[in-house]
Amino acid sequence: MIYPWNERIWAEFRRRLPALPHAVLLHGPRGTGKFEFARSAAGLLLCNSPTGPAGEGEACGTCAACRLYTGGNHPDFFGVQPEADTLEDTETEEAGQTTGDRRKKPSTQILIEQIREVVASIQSGSHQGGRRVILISPAEAMNTATANALLKTLEEPPAQTIVLLVAHEAARLLPTIRSRCQAVGFTEPDRESAIAWLAKNGIQDAAARLALFGGAPLTALESAGDGPGLEVRALIDRFTGAPDALTCADALASVGPPVAVDWLQRWTSDILLYRLCGRIRYHPDLEVRLAPLARAADASALFDYWRSLHGYRRIARHPVNPRLYAERLALDYFECVRGAQ
Do the beta carbons of residue 323 and residue 251 sit within 8 Å? Predict the structure, then answer.
């Protein structure tokens, strides 16, 4: 699926299709449609009979290759994601493997075995006689060893092999990986267009939701259900309802490290913005709650805390101890806003 705000990038991708490089890095903020773009790109690359003239075509959707791809059975397509990302919530518990009394959770990293399996598979010829496509998402879920296992394929790819990497945080990729890819950048759509798109999709409080999720329309749309929107609202209630550090640590632990650190970055940004220039970016409907925190906060300490969250973010998907991670986030935050409590 190509979302309206990505149509210009899609047109350029199709124009360059005849001379497409062997590795393309699709990077930009979460919730902007990069993965869906990559899926559509893979479908077009694998299609036997693209519609339209060269450079303007689309996957036909009816050839044997398209039917195999949409059915999830194309032998020349290799999708690589962390196991945790490929499972629905209802499947996650079943996917865990019991060892003694401990249940092994699905990995949040792309494992070196996954890359080695794909690399071994592409050494033989194409099953359909056309291109082979490897889609890796999110690419930053590869650790150093895993990324190095991919490196030789990026340096010396087999003929007719295209690697599509999707990254929310491209800076976390090894420089050797980034340097071997042609980068395609994605950004959030302009605010008015995004609000109109959300309203068209049935979101009543489109402006507030879009702001809450940093201008990412797909994340804002997902928040309308029982997903991140409810989790974030629960965090806001805990952090502004005469809280204490341990109560807030409980709230952070309940949503998990990735959601916790992502929201704290937005929350502390708004406190700093309001303190310094009276503006609120992510929570425009919460000025009454944010104002006391901003007035009481130690701006210098809060800025240092905001910067430290970038370090916490790097380990958010695999902290050594999630509970201690949540407690450290909460305790350090309270050191900055103690006067408002």
Answer: no
Q: Which domain holds residue 291?
A: 226-340
Query: What are 121-147's pLDDT values in tens digits?
Result: 988 777 777 889 999 999 999 999 999
Kindly indicate the confidence band of residue 88, based on its pLDDT and cuts at 50, 70 and 90.
very low
**Nearby residues of 273 by Cβ (< 8 Å), 6 or more positions away:** 279, 280, 281
Stretch 9-31: mean pLDDT, rounded?
92
Instruction: For residue 226, give the H/E element and its range.
Output: none
* Cα 90–chain centre separation: 21
Residue 223 pLDDT: 73
Q: Is residue 208 part of a domain?
A: no
- Beta-bridged to residue 23, according to DSSP, are 163
Residue 165 lies in a domain: yes
In terms of domains, do 161 and 237 share one? no
Under DSSP, the state recorded for 179 is: T
Element (H, E) at 26: strand 23-27
Nearest Cα residue to 1 out of 212, 148, 260, 221:
221
Residue 220 included in any domain: no
Please indicate, yes or no, whether residues 34 and 142 belong to a single structural domain of this protein: yes
**pTM for the complete prediction?**
0.78
Q: Distance between CA 15 and CA 313 in Å, rounded?
A: 37
